[in-house]
Amino acid sequence: FDATVTIYSHQITRLQGFSMYLWAVIQTILRNHVAPRMTITTDVETIEKNILMLTVCNGPREGGGFFVAPEARPDDGLLHYAMIEYVSRPMMFRLIPEVMNGTHGRFKQVHLGSLKKLQLSSELPVTIHADGEIFAGMTSTVRQLEIEVLPGALQVITCRPPVPPRGLSGRSASRPRHTPMRSLSRMLQDHDRGHLKIVAEY
C-alpha cells in the first residue's frame, strides 16, 4: 500500500510535503484497493490473511505526518510493523486520522508488532519501497520478500570532539575521531524469480 502511495506521490507536481503524501494516500485507496492473500512468517509468529497494507519500520513516522509504528525506535535492534487486513474503502478513510495520531492499533483489523526477521509470500505481486526508493513498482513480479536485522553490523562515523590532554592545544587537540562507515542496507533483487531480500544493518 505505502509503496503505491510513494509511486503516486512522485507523480504529483502541485503539492508538496504532507499534503502531497495525503493526496497520494487518497488516490491509492480509490484506485488500488487490493488485499492479496499473504503468508507472513516472523521470528515471533506466522500470519496468513488478506493484507491491504504491511509496513515495516525502524522509526515511528512515515510520510511526514503518519505515526505508522508508534513504538518503533531506530536504536533498539528491532523492526516494527503495522499491518492492516482487508477493510472497505470507507474504513480505510476512517483509519487515516487514526494513523496520523498513532492510535490505529486499537482497531481489530490493525496489527502492530516487532520482529528481527520476516519472510513474506504473496499470491499476487507486491509493490515495495525503502524510504521512498521504489524497488518493485506497478509492474512488479515480486511475490516473495525477506527482511532481516543484523544487530551491531553497522559501523558509523562519529564526530565527538575529544577532551584534549593537558598541555595539548590546536588542531591536533580538536580533531574528531572517525570510524569507517559501511552501507546502511543491502538490497538484492532477482526479477526472474520475483524475489527480493532486504537486509537492514544496525
Descriptive overview:
The chain is 20% helix and 32% strand. By secondary structure, it is α+β, with helices and mostly antiparallel strands. α1 packs across α2. The protein is globular, with a radius of gyration of 20 Å. Residues 171-194 have low confidence and may be disordered.
Sheet with the most strands, sense and barrel status: 8 strands, mixed
Arithmetic mean pLDDT: 84
The secondary-structure element order is: HHEEEHEEEEEHEE
Uncertain regions spanning at least 5 consecutive residues: 171-194
Question: How far do the termini sit from each other?
Answer: 26 Å
User: What is the helix fraction of residues, given as a range?
Assistant: 10-25%
Number of helices: 4
β content, as a range?
25-35%
Number of strands: 10
Secondary-structure-derived class? alpha+beta
Sum up the overall morphology in one term.
globular
Notable traits:
alpha+beta; single chain; 202 residues; 10 strands; two-stranded antiparallel sheet; globular
